[in-house]
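C-alpha coordinates in:
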Protein backbone atom coordinates (compact mmCIF):
# COMPACT_ATOMS: atom_id res chain seq x y z
CA UNK A 1 0.00 0.00 0.00
CA UNK A 2 3.03 2.26 0.33
CA UNK A 3 2.89 5.24 -1.99
CA UNK A 4 -0.62 4.44 -3.24
CA UNK A 5 -3.61 6.75 -3.14
CA UNK A 6 -6.49 6.98 -2.86
CA UNK A 7 -7.14 4.09 -0.49
CA UNK A 8 -10.08 2.64 1.38
CA UNK A 9 -9.33 0.67 4.55
CA UNK A 10 -12.02 -1.80 5.68
CA UNK A 11 -11.75 -3.24 9.20
CA UNK A 12 -13.76 -6.19 10.53
CA UNK A 13 -13.73 -6.63 14.30
CA UNK A 14 -14.05 -10.00 16.01
CA UNK A 15 -17.37 -8.68 17.34
CA UNK A 16 -18.70 -8.39 13.77
CA UNK A 17 -18.54 -4.60 13.55
CA UNK A 18 -17.31 -3.16 10.25
CA UNK A 19 -15.68 0.24 9.89
CA UNK A 20 -12.98 1.92 7.89
CA UNK A 21 -11.45 5.01 6.43
CA UNK A 22 -10.65 6.76 3.19
CA UNK A 23 -7.44 8.63 2.39
CA UNK A 24 -6.70 10.65 -0.72
CA UNK A 25 -3.02 11.00 0.29
CA UNK A 26 -0.54 8.11 -0.03
CA UNK A 27 0.72 5.99 2.84
CA UNK A 28 4.37 5.23 2.77
CA UNK A 29 7.84 4.79 4.02
CA UNK A 30 8.94 7.93 2.22
CA UNK A 31 7.37 9.89 5.06
CA UNK A 32 9.09 10.33 8.41
CA UNK A 33 8.11 7.69 10.97
CA UNK A 34 5.17 9.02 12.93
CA UNK A 35 4.65 11.98 10.59
CA UNK A 36 1.11 13.09 9.90
CA UNK A 37 -0.15 13.86 6.40
CA UNK A 38 -2.56 16.68 5.56
CA UNK A 39 -5.87 15.95 3.83
CA UNK A 40 -9.17 17.75 3.46
CA UNK A 41 -10.89 14.74 1.88
CA UNK A 42 -10.11 11.86 4.27
CA UNK A 43 -12.93 10.43 6.36
CA UNK A 44 -13.82 7.52 8.64
CA UNK A 45 -17.00 5.49 8.49
CA UNK A 46 -19.00 2.91 10.37
CA UNK A 47 -20.81 0.40 8.16
CA UNK A 48 -22.29 -2.16 10.51
CA UNK A 49 -22.65 -2.68 14.22
CA UNK A 50 -24.49 -5.13 16.41
CA UNK A 51 -27.14 -2.43 16.70
CA UNK A 52 -29.52 -1.57 13.88
CA UNK A 53 -27.85 1.69 12.86
CA UNK A 54 -27.32 3.16 9.39
CA UNK A 55 -23.80 3.83 8.05
CA UNK A 56 -22.20 6.94 9.53
CA UNK A 57 -19.47 9.14 8.04
CA UNK A 58 -16.97 11.01 10.23
CA UNK A 59 -15.30 13.93 8.43
CA UNK A 60 -11.78 15.19 8.99
CA UNK A 61 -11.86 18.32 11.18
CA UNK A 62 -8.15 18.61 12.03
CA UNK A 63 -6.80 18.36 8.50
CA UNK A 64 -3.06 18.43 9.36
CA UNK A 65 -3.55 15.08 11.18
CA UNK A 66 -5.53 13.10 8.60
CA UNK A 67 -3.32 10.00 8.43
CA UNK A 68 -0.05 8.85 9.92
CA UNK A 69 2.55 6.39 8.69
CA UNK A 70 4.30 4.30 11.33
CA UNK A 71 6.25 1.21 10.30
CA UNK A 72 5.29 -0.70 13.46
CA UNK A 73 1.51 -0.47 13.02
CA UNK A 74 -1.16 -0.72 10.41
CA UNK A 75 -3.10 2.34 9.21
CA UNK A 76 -3.50 5.30 11.57
CA UNK A 77 -6.25 7.86 10.98
CA UNK A 78 -6.03 11.07 13.01
CA UNK A 79 -3.91 12.27 15.90
CA UNK A 80 -5.07 10.72 19.08
CA UNK A 81 -5.67 8.29 17.13
CA UNK A 82 -9.23 8.25 15.85
CA UNK A 83 -8.53 4.80 14.37
CA UNK A 84 -5.29 2.85 14.84
CA UNK A 85 -4.77 -0.71 13.63
CA UNK A 86 -2.02 -2.28 15.72
CA UNK A 87 0.70 -4.72 14.71
CA UNK A 88 -0.58 -8.32 15.09
CA UNK A 89 -4.06 -6.81 15.31
CA UNK A 90 -5.78 -10.20 15.11
CA UNK A 91 -3.93 -11.52 18.18
CA UNK A 92 -4.33 -8.65 20.67
CA UNK A 93 -6.54 -5.76 21.73
CA UNK A 94 -3.97 -3.04 20.98
CA UNK A 95 -5.99 -1.54 18.11
CA UNK A 96 -8.12 1.37 19.27
CA UNK A 97 -10.41 4.24 18.38
CA UNK A 98 -10.13 7.60 20.13
CA UNK A 99 -12.89 9.21 18.05
CA UNK A 100 -13.61 12.17 18.05
CA UNK A 101 -10.22 13.78 17.90
CA UNK A 102 -9.19 14.65 14.33
CA UNK A 103 -12.43 13.27 12.84
CA UNK A 104 -15.97 14.04 13.99
CA UNK A 105 -19.60 13.41 13.11
CA UNK A 106 -23.01 12.56 14.56
CA UNK A 107 -22.74 10.92 17.99
CA UNK A 108 -18.99 10.34 17.57
CA UNK A 109 -17.41 8.51 20.50
CA UNK A 110 -14.65 6.00 21.12
CA UNK A 111 -17.34 3.28 20.84
CA UNK A 112 -18.70 4.43 17.46
CA UNK A 113 -16.42 2.49 15.11
CA UNK A 114 -15.86 -0.85 16.88
CA UNK A 115 -18.09 -0.86 19.96
CA UNK A 116 -15.26 -0.17 22.42
CA UNK A 117 -12.07 1.86 22.76
CA UNK A 118 -9.78 -1.18 22.32
CA UNK A 119 -10.65 -4.00 19.97
CA UNK A 120 -9.33 -7.08 18.19
CA UNK A 121 -9.35 -7.12 14.39
CA UNK A 122 -10.62 -10.25 12.63
CA UNK A 123 -9.37 -8.93 9.28
CA UNK A 124 -8.62 -5.72 7.45
CA UNK A 125 -7.98 -4.93 3.83
CA UNK A 126 -6.79 -1.90 1.93
CA UNK A 127 -8.38 -1.17 -1.44
CA UNK A 128 -7.59 1.32 -4.17
CA UNK A 129 -9.77 2.07 -7.18
CA UNK A 130 -8.38 0.90 -10.50
CA UNK A 131 -9.12 3.16 -13.43
CA UNK A 132 -10.33 1.61 -16.67
CA UNK A 133 -7.39 3.20 -18.50
CA UNK A 134 -4.84 1.29 -16.40
CA UNK A 135 -6.64 -2.05 -16.33
CA UNK A 136 -9.23 -3.93 -18.31
CA UNK A 137 -11.00 -4.71 -15.03
CA UNK A 138 -13.04 -2.15 -13.14
CA UNK A 139 -12.83 -4.07 -9.88
CA UNK A 140 -10.76 -2.65 -7.03
CA UNK A 141 -7.41 -4.11 -6.11
CA UNK A 142 -6.88 -5.10 -2.50
CA UNK A 143 -4.13 -5.82 -0.07
CA UNK A 144 -4.76 -7.81 3.09
CA UNK A 145 -2.55 -7.17 6.09
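Residues out:
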Amino acid sequence: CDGISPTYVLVLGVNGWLCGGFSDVPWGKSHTKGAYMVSDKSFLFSLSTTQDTPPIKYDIVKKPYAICYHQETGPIFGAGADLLIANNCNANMDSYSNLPHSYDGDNASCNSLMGDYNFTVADYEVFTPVSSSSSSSSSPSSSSK
